[in-house]
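Homework help thread (please don't just give me the answer)

Our assignment gives two proteins as sequence + C-alpha cell strings and asks us to describe the second one. The first is just a warm-up. Here they are:
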Amino acid sequence: MGKEGKMNADKTTVQSGKSIQALLVDDDKFMLEFVSDLLRELGVKDITTAIDGVQAIAAYDLASQKPDLILCDLHMPGQDGFQLMAILAERGYAGGVVLISGQEARTLKSASLMGQFHELNVLATLEKPIDKKSLAGALAKLGK
C-alpha cells in the first residue's frame, strides 16, 4: 500500500476529462522546451509558448479559448512577468497562474502578492530549476 500510494503521488497527471490549455512565457528557449516537456509528461498537451510579455499577450488575445493555465517567468527583457500580470488582470483572466523565477524566494513572494492584489489565481511560485513534483502540485490546484 505504501509503495502504491507513493507511486501515485509521483505520477500525478491531469486527470479531468477536459484538455488543459497552457501558455508558457519565458525568454530562455531551453526553459520553454524543458517546462513544455514537463507539462506534457503531466498530461498537458495544448501548450503555447511566448518569449516575453508582449508575445504572450498577443497569443492570449488571439486565442479563441483563453488558456486555463499561464506559467510565467518574472524577469524578461521588454515586458516582464510583473507587467504581464497587470495586463492579464485588466483583461479579467480567471485561469491559474504559476510564477517562475531564478531570483531569490523573496522576489517570488512579492510577485505572488502582486498577483493576488490583481485578483489573479496564483497557484504556485516555482524557483528555477523547476522540478516535476512542484509543477504537478501546481497543476493539482488548477481544478480546485
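The one we have to describe:
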Amino acid sequence: MKSKKLKLYSGARKSAKATAAISDGNGKIRINKTPVEIIEPTDAQERILTPIILAGDLRNKINIDVTVSGGGYMGQADACSIAITKAIEGFTKGSEFKKIVNQYDKHLLSGDPRRKESKKFGGPSARTRKQKSYR
C-alpha cells in the first residue's frame, strides 16, 4: 500500500477554527467530509473556493480535507479559505501563488484580526448609551 504525504495547515476567523489537510490527489475538496460543491449558502461556498480559483490548474493535482468548527457560517467560510490558502502556498513552495493571493486579498494568508467589541455598562450595546437632556 502506497502511503500518502499529508500536511496540516490551520486558519482562524473570529471564533471559527479550521484545519486543512492537503495531499496528492485528483481534485477533491471536502469541508467536514462534505464536498465543497454542495455547501450552502452559495456566498460561503464562493468564499471557500476563492483560493482554489486563484490556484488554477493545481486543483486537479491535490486533495484537501478541511475540518472546521465554531463561529457562524461566514466565519467558518473565511477560516476554511485561510486554511486552504496556507495549504496551497505550503504545497507549491513558490512565491508566485503568494503574489497572486496578496494582489487579490492580503487577508487570505495573514487572517483578519478584527473581533467583536465587548458590551459596556450604561447602554444596550458596546457603544450606544442612553440619551439625556438638560432642558
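TA reply:
I won't write it for you, but here's a hint about the kind of observation we're looking for: The two ends are 84 Å apart (CA to CA).
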